[in-house]
Amino acid sequence: MGKRKSRAKPPPKKRMDKLDTVFCCPFCNHGSSVECHIDMKNLIGEASCRICLESFSTTVTALTEPIDIYSEWIDECERVNNPEDDGA
Can you say where in the cell this protein is located (predicted)? Predict the structure, then answer.
């Protein structure tokens, strides 16, 4: 009688790295001063600086993470600072 072939164990799943929840302020450039809060009840996300008290609010979905709110804030700052030339 032969030995039964054993089934190979599946490889362990890779752990996802945690994303940041505190960021550098785009106005005062103070590191780790911007905190993002997500209110899923009202579907509002807010990023605010503890140093210069600047803040940004946006709508969120179930998949929104704090980095998404901060990225939208940075994109909005760039859009305001670099307006498109309409009068070509």
Answer: Nucleus
User: What is the band of 36 on the pLDDT scale with cuts at 50, 70, 90?
Assistant: very high
Q: Which are the contacts of 33, defined by CB distance < 8 A and separation ≥ 6?
A: 22, 24, 25, 49, 50, 51, 52
Q: Work out the average pLDDT over 51-74.
A: 94
The domain made up of 34-81 has a fold known as: N-terminal domain of TfIIb (2.20.25)
Q: Where are the domains of the chain?
A: 34-81
pTM over 0.85: no
Euclidean distance between CA atoms 82 and 74, whole angstroms: 12
CA dihedral 47, 61, 81, 56 (to 10 degrees): -20
